[in-house]
Design brief:
Elements lengths: L4 H5 L15 H9 L13 H10 L7 E3 L6 E3 L17 E7 L4 H13 L1 E4 L2 E4 L2 E5 L5 H14 L3 E5 L2 H7 L9 E5 L4 H11 L3 E4 L3 H13 L5 E4 L5 H16 L11 E2 L8 H13 L4 E4 L4 H14 L12 E5 L8 E5 L2 H14 L3 E6 L6 H6 L5 H11 L9 E4 L7 H8 L4 E4 L7 H9 L2
Parallel strand pairs: 3-6, 3-12, 6-7, 7-8, 8-9, 9-10, 11-12, 14-15, 14-16, 16-17
Antiparallel strand pairs: 1-2, 4-5, 13-15
Helix pairs in contact: 5-6, 10-11, 12-16, 14-15
Length: 449
């Protein structure tokens, strides 16, 4: 485990200068221990202390990055077994496997789906990131051509799967993308280590057992290679789950550094059933895959995995929030009604979904309530007449309307008089349904053209 806040504090200059952005060195130490600050924020810490803090406060699982740009994949860096203990930091990277024996149409289709399948949720753009290129032909030249095609037609973070000779042929085309090289085994460890050093790339390690993996990582670390990803080699789901949990427990609870690296898993090699592959992927994402390689990316398998990943890799101590503002649903016009709700993401998605299903053109105002639901925000004084009136003025929604109908959530009907006073006599303030499921009928009955 990393150093405690008190242990870090003893290594700080204790000047309480505030140059780090917090008033005291003790507060800064506590932020460092909680991974809420970077050591570089303190300009006065000594080089000796930096060295001790860098090694002592390093997470039990090393952080590794491959790829470049917005599709770069960062995995590892985790400090807990369960997200409710703190949070998970770096989400599972999702990759599609592409073999150099596939047809040009198949390669093009997979790359197109990799780049085009994306979903907006809670203001975030959710998508897969990586392409796992496999040399199935045994021809280094053919593998190099596949690498060039991937670079030309996508921004995917690359994983190169092959022998040292095959990877050596393909790596130059993707060197600026910092590919993950897969994989160093007992037989190929020296050649793969040389390739990783020559290209400045992270390296995957594969063994038949965890003991074999640990021996390989220790050997590579001794050669100065620390950006490693491990594959315990298990291809049956029961053993794969056992290995993933064992690796995480040994790294975090026992501080066993030889297994303190993120993992890579291959659901695509565990079953020939596409949907069962998705089920296996969902299990491995929960326990605790760093990178996941799938046989293909389609809406029916990718979307649920992206939602699962979003739920797992969000801070449980911070509510999921939607951005405050005006949202247009069903192409509203100057005569369309205005509904208002809180920015708790679940509330927003339920309400917006019900409005959309009504097919009634509607403006939706989302009030920043720090991620609280409507009723909780009202109890906390964040969803009241004053804040509603302020939002109406701030968004200038009035300028878009001829008919000014503002609909409050039924759960806060008590605010009707306060809101009328705040928004002015130009507005017709109504109380909507208490249950979101009744919104479509309410809108159709009162505002359908």
């Amino acid at each position: 485990m990393g150093l405690s806040g008190i242990q870090i504090f003893k290594l700080l200059p204790k000047t309480n200068c505030g140059d780090c952005g917090v008033p005291t060195c003790l507060a800064f130490a506590m932020n460092l221990a909680a991974s809420k600050a970077e050591l570089s924020a303190c300009p006065h810490v000594s080089e000796e202390a930096k060295a001790q803090l860098a090694s002592g406060s390093a997470p039990p699982i090393r952080t590794v990055t491959f790829g470049a740009g917005e599709r770069a994949v960062t995995v590892g860096g985790e400090t807990v077994l369960f997200r409710h203990e703190k949070t998970f930091f770096n989400k599972t990277g999702l990759a599609v496997q592409i073999a150099d024996t596939e047809s040009a149409d198949s390669v093009k289709g997979k790359l197109e789906r990799l780049m085009k399948l994306s979903y907006v949720r809670v203001g975030l753009n959710l998508h897969a990131e990586a392409a796992a290129l496999k040399c199935a032909s045994g021809d280094p030249a053919k593998f190099a051509e596949l690498a060039k095609a991937v670079k030309e037609y996508s921004q995917a973070a690359p994983i190169l799967i092959g022998s040292p000779k095959e990877i050596e042929a393909a790596a130059p085309a993707l060197k600026d993308r910092k590919p993950l090289l897969y994989a160093a085994t007992t037989d190929t460890v020296d050649a793969m280590a040389a390739l990783a050093k020559a290209n400045g790339c992270p390296l995957a390690v594969k063994g038949k057992t965890l003991d074999e993996v640990a021996a390989l990582t220790q050997k590579l670390a001794g050669q100065g290679l620390n950006d490693l990803v491990i594959d315990p080699g298990s291809r049956a789901i029961k053993q794969a789950l056992f290995d993933e949990v064992a690796i995480r427990r040994l790294a975090i609870q026992k501080t066993f550094r030889p297994l303190g690296y993120p993992t890579i898993t291959f659901p695509c090699e565990m079953t020939g059933d596409f949907m069962m592959e998705t089920v296996y992927a969902s299990l491995l994402m929960a326990k605790y895959a760093g990178v996941m390689v799938l046989s293909d990316l389609r809406g029916e398998n990718l979307f649920p995995l992206l939602l699962e990943r979003l739920n797992i890799y969000t801070d449980p101590q911070r509510p999921m929030k939607t951005t405050e503002g005006v949202y247009e649903i069903n192409k509203p016009n100057e005569n369309s009604p205005v509904l208002i709700t809180s920015n708790f993401s679940l509330t927003y998605f339920i309400v917006s979904g019900e409005i959309e299903s009504s097919r009634v053109p509607t403006w939706l105002l989302v009030l920043d309530t720090d991620g609280l639901s409507v009723l909780t925000a009202w109890a906390a004084g964040k969803f009241v007449g004053e804040t509603v009136g302020s939002l109406v003025k701030k968004t200038q929604i009035t300028q878009k309307l001829n008919k000014k109908n503002l609909i409050l959530p039924g759960a806060v009907a008590v605010l009707l008089g306060d809101v009328e006073e705040e928004v002015g006599k130009d507005w017709n303030v109504l109380v909507g349904p208490r249950e979101s499921a009744h919104i479509p009928a309410f809108l159709r009955q009162n505002f359908a053209a």
